[in-house]
Amino acid sequence: MEKPQPILVTHLFPEILEHLLALLSGLSADEWDRPTACALWSVKDVALHLLGVEVGILSRKRDGYAPSGGVWDWAELVELVNRWNAGWVEVTRRMSTRLLCDLLAFAGAQVCEYYRTLDPTAMGGPVSWAGPEPAPVWLDLAREYTERWLHQQHIRDAVGRPGLKQPRFLAPVLDTFVRALPHTYRDTDAAAGTMVQLTITGDAGQRWGLLREGGRWDLYLRPDGPPDAEAIMDEDVAWRLFTRELGWDQSLAQVTIVGDRSLGLRMLDVVSIIA
Fold first, then answer.
1. Which residue segments constitute the domains of the chain, with CATH numbers given?
2. pLDDT on residue 225
3. For 162-196, what is each residue's pLDDT tens digit?
4. CA gap 182, 188 in Å, rounded
5. Are strands 229-234 and 216-221 parallel, antiparallel or unpaired?
6. Are 176 and 143 in contact (CB under 8 A)?
7. How far apart are CA 27 and CA 265, in angstroms?
8. Distance from C-alpha of 62 to C-alpha of 78, rounded to nearest angstrom
9. What is the pLDDT of residue 228?
10. Residue 50 — pLDDT band, cuts 50, 70, 90?
11. Which residues of 213-239 are buried (b: 16+ CB within 10 A; e: fewer)?
């Protein structure tokens, strides 16, 4: 078995931005108003949220601007992020779609340039859904990449455009999302040596294993031997499950559990987003 390698995605940010701008530039007025999987948000609202993400990165991280606040627990953090996101979208809805695209291009390019200046091997702050400990910068960048991929996918689903599901774009998303598994299983007890396997089928899929050792769960790539429990799911089901687009019952209907059912079902509780 081998430990998963760092996920290096800096080179993908300009590409995914280019795809987003090309997608938005071809939308009709009706398509901008279509509902998305994001509750109460239209296609335009999701694009406005993406602009807010870029503005936040440039203000908080590049420029060091820190709005007043403190340290929050998970529930407080989710509530705060939801409130900030809703407030931003509400205020910016008066913006034209042309100006929105112009600002996305302007801010997005600056974010791409800022990300190129970062050392992915340095330690940064925690990625909350992966655990409270400091995380390497590459994991934070990978998380930022998944947010941009995910919301662009929401837009593509809403307007009936093909998704960016080539392994080049989707494999890093899945690889990032599974880094939440040790944190998901943190309170699940099992004998030392117990292995829980996640198999994601499809061109962007892979096999990961959670091994119980030293009183904790460690993540491995392509585990050896038969697992004690296994969850098998398609790549499209996987990203929708990890981001809570699918409910528990919907996920159960599309996921095959083999072996110890209670251990395998815990896989359906993974959450790889904040809100």
1. 12-164 (1.20.120.450), 179-269 (3.30.1050.10)
2. 86
3. 999 999 999 999 999 999 999 999 999 999 999 99
4. 10
5. unpaired
6. yes
7. 40
8. 23
9. 98
10. very high
11. eeeebebbeebeeebbbbbbbebbbbb
